[in-house]
Design a protein that fits this description.
Blueprint lengths: L8 E2 L5 E2 L3 E3 L15 H11 L5 E3 L3 E2 L4 E2 L5 E2 L9 H9 L4 E7 L7 E2 L3 E3 L13 E3 L2 H21 L3 E6 L4 H6 L14 H4 L1 H14 L4 E7 L10 H14 L3 E5 L23 H6 L4 H7 L7 E4 L5 H10 L4 E4 L2 H4 L3 H7 L24 H25 L9 H23 L2
Parallel strand pairs: 3-4, 3-16, 4-8, 5-7, 5-8, 8-12, 10-11, 12-13, 13-14, 14-15, 15-16
Antiparallel strand pairs: 1-2, 6-9
Helix pairs in contact: 1-2, 1-13, 3-6, 13-14
């Protein structure tokens, strides 16, 4: 019988999701300067834990304090206090939801660091940044695998019910997969098998650390959407290898900081043009790729990006293309969106989907890429500000102008960066 949004899902490891609606991972920035979870993280997951979603995925939990995606990421490392992670897990799962920790290393896309940023090769991000990247040594790559498994083992002990290894959006695992950013000629580069070695080694190490009954997921790009980058055909091959490695859920996404398909934008900052009518009707950005891979894998599939109406979510599940519907930004505008969708109280998850257009003349000194990033960032900052509101127990606004979002977020992030550098240097 076709699946419905309210149906439970049994994963290969035996974990049961109480329904097919997931809160996708969104960066949070609520830790203290040491990277420890705080009461703000607890309050946030009290809200989302009561949202009605069957699965909650945390924002980036990083494996190395020297390289952050943004100020105040949660960091889990050997010899470090895990802070209030146990309380976060308890708050998130108190109403029956599964809560999985997304484990990540930003690589060259780090937003903050105590040292020179690192990647598979010395290829900086082409977004106008002057920050250079150095290539990781073989010994450092081996240490990364150990760090991924250590975080998984630690959060399992804290009471979380699963983990997700982030291998999308141009972060470190994704950088190793792409021939544009991985120029290595050793066992970690060249062929697809070599480029996928870090991801597969990390997933196998995670599975060994947590055992067979703990949920292990991967978030993977369908493609980088860049000429010469990681392709859909390569993604299909990697998915087969991940299935052999024993993952329980695959989340499909796409793009990176240089190609923002994961938030529904093209490289010029405009909404994606000329999508096929069938894809538009089903709303989600990556359903077409899920259609393609569904016959080739038995791994349950989750698609995040663009879903808004209950009708489109149900249609995607009935089609068999996917097993779990991921929502991100709607959980910022309405923390109870899952309950309201599942109960029929609403038929659509409302959200200001697009950043208001920023006139080119409003940024006369900016180059085209900087202007594009500002447009995308103004919408993304809405999420950041609403997450902070929920964590602080203040009202969650439904709308806010782009200038407010940018200025408020920049002020908070600037303070967080200053605190980080005062503590760790860099």
């Amino acid at each position: 019988m076709p699946a419905r949004l309210s149906d439970p899902l049994v994963l290969p490891c035996g974990t049961v999701l109480p329904n097919r609606l997931a809160k996708a991972a969104m960066t949070e920035g609520l830790a203290d300067v040491e990277g420890r979870a705080t009461q703000r993280n607890v309050r946030l997951y009290e809200r989302w834990g009561a949202s009605g979603a069957g699965l909650l995925l945390t924002g980036n939990v990083l494996i190395d304090h020297r390289f952050l995606e943004r100020p105040r990421n949660v960091v889990v490392e050997r010899g470090r206090d895990t802070g209030m992670l146990r309380e976060v897990a308890q708050a998130a799962t108190a109403h029956g939801a599964q809560c999985w920790v997304q484990i990540n290393h930003p690589g060259r896309q780090a937003g903050l660091g105590a040292e020179q940023f690192v990647g598979p090769s010395a290829v900086p991000v082409a977004t106008g940044s002057a920050v250079m990247t150095r290539a990781l040594s073989t010994a450092e790559i081996g240490d990364l695998v150990d760090r991924f498994s250590y975080v998984a083992e630690t959060v399992q002990a804290c009471g979380f019910t699963g983990v997700q290894v982030h291998a999308a959006h141009g972060y470190l695992n994704s950088q190793f997969l792409s021939p544009l950013t991985n120029l290595r000629t050793d066992e970690w580069g060249g062929s697809l098998e070599n480029r996928a070695r870090l991801l597969l080694s990390s997933v196998r190490a995670v599975r060994k650390a947590v055992g067979p009954d703990f949920a292990v997921s991967v978030k993977l790009n369908s493609a980088d959407f860049q000429k010469g980058g990681f392709t859909e055909d390569e993604s299909l091959t990697v998915i087969g290898w991940l299935e052999e490695a024993g993952i329980d859920l695959l989340e499909i996404s796409g793009g990176n900081y240089e190609s923002m398909e994961m938030v529904g934008f093209s490289n010029d900052g405009s909404p994606q043009p000329e999508r096929r009518a069938s894809t538009v009707a089903r709303e989600a950005y990556f359903v077409t790729f899920a259609d393609r891979i569904r016959p080739h894998t038995r791994v349950p599939l989750m698609v995040t990006g663009g879903f808004r109406s209950r009708a489109a979510m149900d249609a995607a599940l009935v089609s068999g293309a996917l097993d779990v519907v991921g929502l991100g930004r709607p959980f910022c505008a309405d923390p109870a969106v899952a309950t309201r969708l599942l109960s029929g109280a609403i038929s659509e998850a409302s959200f200001p989907d697009r950043a208001p257009h920023i006139p080119r003349e409003a940024m006369p000194e900016a180059d085209d890429m900087t202007h594009f990033i500002a447009q995308v960032q103004s919408g993304i900052c809405y999420n950041y500000n609403r997450i902070r509101d929920m964590a602080d127990g203040t009202a969650t606004a439904s709308e806010s102008d782009w200038l407010h979002n940018l200025r408020n977020h920049e002020a908070v992030e600037g303070t967080g960066a200053a605190d980080y550098h005062a503590r760790f240097g860099g």
